[in-house]
Amino acid sequence: MKRRTLLGAAALPLGPLPLVPLARPALAQSWPSRPITLSVPFAAGGPTDVMARLLAQRLAVSLGQSVPVENLGGAGGIVGTEKLSRARPDGYTIGLGHMGTHAANPAFYKSLPYNPLTDFEPLCSVGTNPMIAAARPGLAKTVAELRDWVAKNPGQLTLANAGTGSVSFLGGLLFDRVISARSTMVPYRGAAPALQDTMNGVTDAIVDQAVTVIPQARGGTIQALAVAMPQRLPQLPDVPTAAEAGIPDFSIAVWNGAYAPKGTPEPILAKLAEAFSAALDDEALSKQFTEYAVLIPPRAERGREPLRRLMQAEVPRWEKLARDAGVEKQ
Ligand code: MLT
């Protein structure tokens, strides 16, 4: 059989192609035999990156190979997510994505260069994180003070974000609406540089995930204004909920997920999914995620099929939300 395939291959102009079906099971069996790249479609130091690096340490232990994190930010996560969709589906390139890259983006772009539902293999939901509205130091200590500032400076508020369709963009749109600010959205390659510029006073405010706001708000380098969820966070007990701050409709939390490119062999997908799930069961990681207010889904809700179902529900939900809000696709 092997001989016939090889002889047949010799007669074809594309030579080695018929070897692929023979090579695949062997590849799956020996996987992983070299480092596995975990791609992050945003700049280093942002929420996706922080979660990726914590996960990568545990994945490396359970898979027996190093798991370097590769950051490729730009265009609200599209640049890096497209690259992941085109990566060789051999289990050596996987990536993190979230509610923006894998659900909301189709609602904001006319021709997104990937399809979140068909170009990826969902691996594992890795956690949900609330968003927090925060202002540059000295601008406002509360939402009420920010509203006063907006009233005195109509149309002047700048909101830093990680680009159209990113979650800091989605959170920013919602916040802008609930405080009626008509803000200018200022895009960056990730939430880390966006947050940094807000801390430095280059931009006025940001809506970012708790992962990265908590340490800065504690350190006093940013003024947290409201948590976009019904309960206060024990990590920031003095920061009011959205309802307490007078903006009850400011409610947004971000789900994050791990993906492989479509076509990755089934046995590798199963091993990767289990490795992510095991990482989330790790006591030290779960402690670190809890410090950042990342809620880890129970095992039954974090696997490949639950993440696929979540995306199948979320893509049309964001299409509808954007349509109802009159958002014009770019
Ligand atoms: C986003 O705003 O979509 C992400 O949180 C950006 C990031 O992880 O840097």
TrEMBL record:
Pfam families: TctC
Entry annotated with the keyword Transport: no
Signal peptide (residue range): 1-28
Record-linked SUPFAM superfamilies: Periplasmic binding protein-like II
Signal as UniProt keyword: yes
Origin superkingdom: Bacteria
Protein keywords: Signal
Cross-referenced InterPro entries: BUG (IPR005064), Bug_dom1 (IPR042100)
Family the entry assigns: Belongs to the UPF0065 (bug) family.
Protein's recorded name: Tripartite tricarboxylate transporter substrate-binding protein
